[in-house]
Amino acid sequence: MAMRITTIIGVFALGIFSALLMGAGQGVRVTHIEVPGGAANVAVGEGSVWMSLLTNHVARIDPRRNEVTAVIRAGKHPSGIATSPGAVWVAEVEDGTVARIDPATNQIVATIPVSGHPYDLAFGEAMIWKVDSDTGMVSRIDPKMNQVVGSPISVGREAYGIAIGENAAWVTNPKENTVSRIDVRRNQIVSTIHVGSNPGGIAVFQNAVWVCNRNESSVSRVDPRSNTVTTTISVASSPGAIVGASNRLWVTHFRDNSVSTIDPGSGKVVDNAVHVRANLGGIAAGEGAVWVSNLSDVYVSRIDP
Hints:
single chain; mainly beta; Methylamine Dehydrogenase, Chain H; five-stranded antiparallel sheet; 29 strands
């Protein structure tokens, strides 16, 4: 395995402030944790919160103390980030690589060449799934081998987000207003589903697939049994990223810097939006909270439902 020199910085409480806001059915606490640079994306795993930073680093946050405990040097333009048992994975867009971080040492222990420019990552079905927006291709990385396996799968132009669940990988295709369903066992597309305009963020939650339609200010619910849209939910403008947690869907809105919540059972927006920081990036859930990255801000927002 290739070992990359890594910068590890001890605990540094750059700044923390919080506020009690009304939303999500009750008062929720929003805590803003300072990080050394704007954060493109976020993932939760191995007892920590991980942020890909615009400064070409990855920040590790201890959710018990709300403190940055390590900053790890990454490649150029780190974007998608995902966790698997015993590892953290970072898409390095300009380098055309995916880096593997060992959370036990906070070191990059493998750098895996991939085709094109990797944008988004997801873990599921024992594989790391990589989306290349430039080529519209999806590839798989085997964590046991630290290498790409199988043939790449051609999805849509400028493929964007990916989520794993219901025995499938689901990929949004903004230029074609579709979602590609990939059979994870056969490694091929088995359905192409038309959704709203400019689909972006995607999540699998409570036996359904949920898609943010950025140009229509809506969220589509896809039934994985029929591969059809069964509900279209109107939301605030510019829905970006989406995640399921605490029996709710949490949706970012980058124009008004807020996070709204949807009841997946009724398919309705519930309660008040929670306002966070500026220019929202990714969203993730875990360690008892919802985490939102902020591209043009040096704070990461923690929402405690």
